[in-house]
Amino acid sequence: MTDTQTIASMRPATTQDVADILMDAASKGEPLVVRGNGTRVGLGNPVAATRVLELGGLDQIDFYDPDDLVIRAGVGATLDNLEQVLAEKGQYLPFEPPRYAGLYGTNGARSTLGGAVSTALSGPRRILTGAVRDFVLGVEGVNGQGDVFKAGGRTMKNVTGYDISKLVTGANGTLAALTMLTIKVLPAPRAEVTLVLPAATLEEDVALFARMRALPLGIGGLVRRVNAAGVCEVLVRVEGTVPGVAGNQQVLNGLLGARGGMVVLEQAQSHALWAGVRELDCLNAKPDELVWRVNLPATTMPTFVEQARKAGCINRFFVDWAGGVVFSTMRGVQPEVDTLRYRKMAEKAGARATILRAPDAVRAQFGAFPPVSAGVAALAARTRTAFDPAGILNPGRMTVQA
Amino acid sequence: MQMPEPSQAIISQRDALAQGLRQIVGKDWVISDDAQRRPYQCDGITAYMAMPLLVVLPGCADEVQAVLRFCNEKGVKIVPRGSGTSLSGGALPLEDGVLLVTSRLCNVLAVDEHNRVARVQPGVPNIKITEAVSHLGLCYMPDPSSQLISTIGGNVAENAGGVHCLKYGVTANHILGMQAVLMTGEMVELGGAYLGAAEGELDLMGVLTGSEGLLAVVTEIAVRLEPVPEVARVISMSFPSVEEACACVGAIIGVGVIPAGLEFMDRKVLDAVSVLIKEKFDDRTAALLLCELDGTAVEVDALVGVVSDVARAQGAIELKVSTTEEERQRIWSSRKLAFSAIGKLCPDYYCTDGTIPRNKLPEVLNKMADMSKKYGLDYANCFHAGDGNLHPIIMYDAAKPGDLEKAEEFGADVLIACVDAGGVLSGEHGIGVEKRDLMTHQFTEIDLQQQQMVKCAFDPKDLLNPGKMFPTLCRCAEFGRMHVHNGNLRFADIPRF
């Protein structure tokens, strides 16, 4: 699952090198695949380009200021490296970036910060701490004309010019080749436990999620999944200070006790469990299966899942974000037919269905990302032109060309 | 401060334009006479005034669409305005522009308790959202101090912050979806009423938030609701020096605590406030920090202990911890009254909102003391220390010739010092007209050009709130044709206002 027929890679080590490459490509109107180390190479639509601009070489940490909760690093800095540096000071990347290396058969140790920001993938903690976009304070990048620009800053609050940092987050490299990112970090919670309890029906579990979230209990993960032993279970991650977690756990015991069969996983076990949840391990996606993510209001999720399963569009699935996202596999027997049906079903439910993994041909035909209205598509196209008039940066990565 | 030259051709069509707009919104909702337009001459910055060509108050999103389409066709500029509390002149009218006021779009349209989302119109005052959901134990978190009056639409335009955004984030972190109308009258729906509704396409909602009314007029907003924290307690911490208070800010965050709010007040502010609250502060106190901690009772008790230990280690001479809600409110009253207390000390004051890395607080505060001597103007400091968001209060007398100009220069020097310390011109008030001409200090020509290109994608005729945020007008046509390499100053000879 690679971009079509890429033959040559360029791996610059400085922002100026990136600018030179892009100025040259712009003058020739030559499209480029822009990526970090290519560990999420099956995400988004395939790009028709013969050369790859790989930004993984821009991997230096520029500064890290723990007292100011801010780190600035090259886009090629690996998430593993950053997380280790932050952990030494008791801090973390709050958006819990997934690598999805298992999904794409790549090496997750090489997943970069730039990739995390460009794909805007947020982990299970999103319901508590927020999404990637909430933590990108400032950016430096090179637009499609080879101009180096910066936007945002390093402070927590900033209304100085348009929030270009948000615009490039999740743009999948279609606006600029990012070179440097300034990220807000947070103190990692001192304590963490996970309560595991037997699942009930989807409706009952979603209602339970809502009841728990109505209380300020520091719940940083609410999942319903089938575990390795084939048992359907609910996972509740509680985080905070040591006494805070103990207190919140007691409140939850009262709320959840009626279900019975609760198991408590302490710090280390809990940590390992959620690393797997983040990577969609429990989907156990087979190589020939498609993998989907559907975002939707939690309350409409049970009906949607039930219908999609009946229609054969969902093979295995699990629910994250307190019911607000469904990750699922789809049999690869008739991917074109099922893709169309699943998308339609999602659209009817007011949901957004994204293909996380599928053969190139499927993504090229239907688009990895769900379609948007004509007006939004046109506005996004004009915005892309504002950064990349020649259309050389990952053309077609996010939108299916008409 | 100079604005773009008003178009006499447009001004001469005032009566015809008023008539056209009355056909859209009804005759009562277009204000054209002098007496009724006068209250709209300025926003929260009273130093800048202009009489709007006309004031229009649409009653629904369709009318907003029609008004924009009409003005776009006639080439008439639009300045959007909520309650007019902007502290950067973002809603400063244009003499040849229509002021589009959102006051009539003031309904909370729907509350979805289970998915914890409210859909609201832009003219809803911030506080009304929380009031509409408080019976469910929910609230809308961002709380700018203007929240009783300022509208959610204005909050979106300025990406408003507030005392509690240290822990809970600013407006942008709480918006899930929006409906917006472009200058052409075209309506777009961005995101939706759930997490992740905007994913898979460019984050246009993200760039609209904080765009100061230059890109589109927002007609509906879906906001996230949060459970109200069970308990909140505040610690008042006195320090014998500004430096020690500043150091304590970094130390609290460094130890892993994110307070709900962390505010700084200097001695001048305390003296002014003590008159109002009839309470004396310890003579040795040079600066006071207010640190609010919230969460469950157990959690908060633990954090109060941690923060108190840090404060003592950093040299705090007196700690007061609220034990009841009444006490908490009383301790906060000093901060809440700060600006009105200062207002009683001087005929006028001027306040900006440059933001800096927290560890640069002592350095920039020291520079401010030097500037005060240079300009011969007194100042006081009362700000969101936890975010490094400064609010220097520069005292002057508008009746004294030259005083306003000196205050403005003092303010500009502070902002330049903020940028030089690695910070930004504005943390929460926005650029507007006030800081517009300083943008070139923070950004290169290329940075600004890239931002203005975004403006071209949304509003190629530059009719929405022109003259704000950027020191030069947008030149969409030129951008399309020309390309100059890094470092070369473009359009070196064009007029700047």
Automatic annotation (TrEMBL), chain A:
**Regions that span the bilayer:** none
- Every copy of the FAD-binding PCMH-type domain together lies at 2-188
Q: Does the keyword NADP apply?
A: no
Q: Which domain of life is it from?
A: Bacteria
Keyword terms, alphabetized: FAD, Flavoprotein
Pfam families tied to this protein = FAD_binding_4
What name appears for this protein in its UniProt entry? FAD-binding protein
UniProtKB/TrEMBL annotation, chain B:
Spell out the Pfam families in the cross-references.
FAD-oxidase_C (PF02913), FAD_binding_4 (PF01565)
Q: Which SUPFAM superfamilies match?
A: FAD-binding/transporter-associated domain-like, FAD-linked oxidases, C-terminal domain
| Domain annotation FAD-binding PCMH-type: ranges | 48-228
PROSITE patterns hit by this protein = FAD_PCMH
What cofactors are annotated for this protein? FAD
Check the record and name the PANTHER family matching this protein: GLYCOLATE OXIDASE SUBUNIT GLCD
UniProt-recorded name of the protein: FAD-binding protein
